[in-house]
Amino acid sequence: MGLESRGRGRGFSVLRGVMESVQQRLYARDWPARALDRWGSARVVVERHRISTGRAPRPPLRIGFISDLHVGPLTSTRLLESAFERLAEEAPDVLMLGGDYVFLEATAAKADRVARLTGVPAR
User: Which of 51-55, 97-101, 118-122 has the lowest mean pLDDT?
Assistant: First the structure.
């Protein structure tokens, strides 16, 4: 059981460790994500916002922002790939990644998956 925080901060408790251990067993082999890939119908929504800085005209800076990826057993691979395809279509000058990259345990494999999705070389 994963009852130790292993770098997860002071808020990690034995109860949280027990709950995460149960979830890891319950979601073994990522079956919920695979089911969503097969039968799910989640969609990606692109929101555009224009912000005026009030300064002299300059070329626009396109900023892409994506967050709450929750890579893991509950997130559809098809949904993640769709989100990053849409993001690439927008061709941002800067890509910002908000938190919550993974669900449950952060592993090297999950970090590699996030890197592949973003197009940023891992390690």
Answer: 118-122
DSSP-derived 3-state class of residue 94: strand
CA angle 30, 35, 101 (to 5 degrees): 45
Q: Is residue 6 part of a domain?
A: no
Strand ranges in the chain using DSSP code E only, listed in sequence order = 63-66, 94-97
What is d(CA 76, CA 35) in angstroms, rounded to the nearest whole number?
Answer: 8
Higher local confidence (pLDDT), 47 or 104: 47
Domain count, the chain: 1
Residue 8 forms part of a structural domain: no
Residue 4: inside a domain, yes or no? no
> Distance (Å, rounded) from C-alpha 71 to C-alpha 76?
8
Residue 69: exposure state from Cβ atoms within 10 A (0-12, 13-18, ≥19) = buried
Q: Which domain holds residue 56?
A: 14-118
User: Mapping DSSP to helix (H, G, I), strand (E, B) and coil, where does residue 97 land?
Assistant: strand
